[in-house]
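Justification of computing resources. Each target in the renewal requires a structure prediction run like the one illustrated here; the chain below, 73 residues long, is used simply to show the kind of job we budget for.
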Amino acid sequence: IIVFLFIGVAAVTAGSTNDDHMSKALMIGASLLFFIVAVVVIVAFILTIVIVKFAFKLARLIDAKQTIAIQRS
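Resulting structure tokens:
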């Protein structure tokens, strides 16, 4: 992620200092890449939260099942 951020900053800097078509294309590509990386990071963060939530829910269900098994014995 840090490498992609560095490439994005370098592309923006190159685009602001030079006014040729190559730097504009690089800047657009880096901006698109930065957007894609940002979306992937956000999705990964949301999935992590969902997985942790379900892990705790599963732990509660297992604990409840053990409690019922102990009461029946």
